Amino acid sequence: MAGSVSRRGFLGGAAAASVAGTVAWAPGRAWADPVPPARIRLSVNGKPYELDADPGVTLLDALRERIGLTGTKKGCDRGQCGACTVHVDGRRVVSCLTLAITCVGKNVTTIEGIADGDALHPVQQAFVDCDGFQCGFCTSGQIMSAVEVVSDRSVHTDDDIREAMSGNICRCGAYSNIVDAVKQARGEK
Amino acid sequence: MTVSLSRVESRLKVTGGAVFAADNVATAYGYLVTSTIALGTVTAMDATAALAAPGVLAVYTPFNPLKLFGYGDNSTDETAPVLQDNGVRYNGQVIGMVVADTFEHARDAASLIAPTYDVKPGNVDFAAGVATATPTSSPVAEVLAPGVTSIDAALAASDVTVSAVYTTPHQHHNPMEPHAAVAVWTDDRLTLYTATQGVMNVVSHMARALGVDQSKVHVVNPYVGGAFGGKIGNWAHVPLAAAAARALGRPVKVALTREQTFAVSGHRPPSHQTVTLGAAKDGTLVAIKHEGVSGKSQSGPSMENVANQSLTTYASPNLHVTRAFVPLDVSAMTPMRAPGETHGAFALESAMDELAFKLGMDPLALRQKNYAVKVPNSGNPWSSKHLDECYTAGASAFGWDKRNPVPGSVRDGDWLVGLGTATATYPASRSKSTIKVRLQADGTAVVSGTGADLGTGQFTVFAILGAQALGIPAGSIVPELGDSSLPVATPAGGSTSTSSNGPAVLAAADAAKAALIAQAATNPASPFNGKTPTYANGMVSADGVSMSFGSLLTAMDLPAVEGTSSLPSGTTKGYGYLSFGAHFCEVRVNRWTGEPRVSRWLTVIDAGTIVNEKTARSQVLGAVVMGIGGALLEDSRVEPDTGRYAGANMAAYLVPVNADIPHVDVQFLNYPDTVFSPLGARGLGELGIVGVAGAVANAVHNATGKRVRDLPITLDKLL
After folding, report:
1. Beta partners for A99?
2. Which residues of chain B neighbour A77 with C-beta distances below 8 Å?
């Protein structure tokens, strides 16, 4: 590596060589100069956080790897499983498909932020009572979804609950118990 | 006495406080590079661009490997250690790792690496290899009645026979927690936080891989985000994280992406089964011939002996089972929930339904007619068997007598409705287990061992059994597991956790009580010194004086007394040990679209003592849900040209979501199996999935008249 070669110029050459030598489907590409880190100010569970990160950082990775709130889980990183569900301004979102920088000026709520001190949120208590989980890995996302579903006036029947909770996969298969937990939290049990 | 206790770790799991492997802190992140061909060699991996990318600390490839020793012989791990040669044995094999200061930097730099390959044609088509399958080292198991010359002779002499081929696809565990490892070295000592079903398995295999003494490796993993067999193996990311952390002198975190888990972390092999049943006109089975072929990866030893299910399920004077495999250039296989039994029971239970239909007999009555009073392939008695009660109690609760035997005759609007049943069986066994009970001066008791709680409820089982044995509230028990520094208990696998660790908890509690009493009688500071104290319900008493063990320890100025007990593996010879169950389900198939939906479910379980009804019910519920996934949804296709799992994500590899699952009812008979163990609990984690796909297929037939013998039962097969 010649030290005098600029990163951009050098990498452009490397990319061309790499493409020529490639037989598989994944071609090499140049590393575009990275976007400089952005100052991202977030409000999470009512507390301010400030981080310098690539604007491409997801809310999920910002929460887990930079802020240290690891209760929100990464199950698929592409919006298919719901394990990373959090609330942004009171609405559930999958944080793996939400860029942290788009949450500036909004209120982010995670599983760590819904209990009232030592008193569990009624949905958390219902999940305990109804055994709405086994391994617990999808549970943060399930509960964050359920908190919204409990107050969703368009949800009436058990089938409505099942449909509304179907964005959150539970491979342990606690679904019947999750439906029971949502019903308990709605005051129906 | 039925106990139904919420999980002791519930609060941590509903508040986000349970620390899973990837939740541990590292200062560097590894991102894996995987192969895109099925077979061949990597001829070059230009890492120049990746090394120059922002934040990159190192790039490891077969041409710049981290040294690892082989550790995978004769185990559930891959045979060859990662990066130690440039061979590609399957698509998705780990062929490199980028380590960077952030996850994003590592991921982005990994995308800059473009391997070149020398490609060879891979053998990835299971179906194409069935005709020339390789027999295993134990290719046939057979029982023939006196005077019968062959299984085919027995079948030929039967009044009625049915014979059909049943096929099942590759399936993937897909625990919600993708495998992850965080490796932290302090001088020459490694602490490894890694998602595993058994921390001691990690210690022994990673010590070998890294070339260090086992005493230098500490594995910590109290919370496991589901596993189902897929976290027995030490997959490529584990030694890579550890070796990279050692090389770089900083903690390294490596988490598989969901896509990577499909190839990197094992899966259930496909099967091809031919089942031929012969029976007398009254339904009495004369012969069962079950020919099983499993896929087997060239990269690991695991496969499934699917046909074995027919050796022990139904009474038949003639049994014949074969075992063979198709070697495939696909990723390593590994046990997945009831490995062998799940797919084997789909074939056998479907075949029984086909026989019942041909005989014009109720399918439940056929099962009862061929009830195995003794173990079919040995003649031994069962340790305990109440499957007959599962059948009758289930039939009554489910309303089986309302089943219309004529297929396609029950309609509810646009839906054709059918009922199906199947038998569940799963072997019970006990492994060696050492448990420690530590009575502490604060009145609590720690129950500890290296076992795992994958969501199974093992923490709570420790608490309940410790509480029962010590006569104190479960809330006073501190259960500890998932840490290699604890006494070596049984890991999670083969449904042996509670069956093995449970009796050891009881024995260790007795040892702790004995140690306490000995101290009480001899310690000069003990008020019971020189007396013969006794222990009951947390209190030590003698001569009308009583003290709690906490107060006594405080009086003696002791922080704790401990008792440790080791129980051996194995059970009394001469018995058959199985857990049993009966499934009943209602399926609806749309008349116009063919869409199948499970609408009602009941499973009745005979698994011996149920330690905690609440978590046991969840285990069975979850197993049924996974079984419904296998019956209706789960289907991993291998791309012929590349050997790639074409649907390696959760939008393409469908597992059940909430809307796919009706209310599932689970009942337990709860008869202690005291031949099996003093506790009488046989094990539960896998039993519930066995037979589910058969019950669904049978209900689909009853609803539509269509017999689907190829899983999953998707709507295209019903149109």
Report:
1. A58
2. 257-258
Closest chain B residue to the Cα of A64, Cα to Cα: B23
β-bridge mates for residue B287, sequence order: B278, B318
Q: Which domains does chain B have, with CATH numbers?
A: 21-118+176-264 (3.30.365.10), 271-428+573-717 (3.30.365.10), 433-567 (3.30.365.10)
Q: What is the pLDDT of residue B74?
A: 75
Task: Please name the member of A11, A54, A166 whose beta carbon is closest to the beta carbon of B49.
Answer: A11
Is 80 exceeded by the pLDDT of residue A23? no
Claim to verify: residue A18 and residue A46 sit in the same structural domain:
no
Burial (0-12, 13-18, 19+ Cβ within 10 Å), A46: exposed
Antiparallel, parallel or unpaired: β A85-88 and A91-94: antiparallel
For residue B1, the model assigns a pLDDT of: 66
Same domain, A72 and A132: no
pLDDT tens-digit map of B308-331? 999 999 999 999 999 999 999 999
Which of A95, A113, A131 is at the close of a domain? A113
Q: Using the beta-carbon criterion (under 8 Å), do A135 and B104 form an inter-chain contact?
A: no
Mean pLDDT of chain B: 97
Q: Residue range A131-138: average pLDDT? A: 98
Give the end of a domain, one of A113, A145, A163. Answer: A113
Q: Which residue blocks in B639-716 are alpha helix, DSSP H?
A: 692-704
Catalytic annotation, pick one of B9, B480, B634, B686: B686
Q: What is the pTM (predicted TM-score) of this model?
A: 0.95
* CA distance to A37, B176, B247, B301, per residue, from B236 (Å): 32, 19, 17, 16
Could you tell me if A26 and A43 lie in one domain?
no
Query: pLDDT tens-digit profile of B176-188?
Result: 999 999 999 999 9
Measured in Å, how far apart are chain A's first and last C-alpha atoms?
Answer: 69
What does the pLDDT read at residue B110?
A: 97
Q: Domain limits at A139?
A: 122-185
Tell whether the model's pLDDT for residue A33 goes beyond 90. Answer: no
- The answer to whether B45 touches B63, Cβ cutoff 8 Å, is yes
CA distance A62 to chain B (A): 11
Taking every pair of C-alpha atoms in chain B, what is the biggest distance, in angstroms?
84
SS3 at position B163: strand
Answer yes or no: B9 catalytic.
no
B659 to chain A: nearest residue by CA? A162
Nearest to B23 among A26, A70, A133 (CB): A70
pLDDT, tens digit, 9 for 90 and up, residues B458-498: 999 999 999 999 999 999 999 999 999 999 999 999 999 99
| Nearest chain B residue to A22, by CA | B116
Which of A19, A31, A137 has the CB atom closest to B225's CB atom? A137
Same domain, A44 and A29: no
Which positions in chain B touch A166 (Cβ < 8 Å)? 657-659
pLDDT of residue A34: 63
pLDDT digits (tens, 9 = 90+) for B2-59: 899 999 999 999 999 999 999 999 999 999 999 999 999 999 999 999 999 999 999 9
Chain A residues closer than 8 Å to B657 by CB: 166-169, 175
Whether pLDDT at A16 is above 90: no
Q: What DSSP string describes B289-333?
A: EEEEEEEEETT-S----GGGGGGTSS--SEEEEEEEEEEESSPPP
Please state the ipTM of this predicted complex: 0.97
- The residue whose two tokens read 């295999």 is B205
**Straight-line distance from the first to the last Cα atom of chain B, in angstroms, rounded to the nearest whole number:** 50
The CATH number that applies at residue A85 is 3.10.20.30
Residue A160: CATH number of its domain:
1.10.150.120
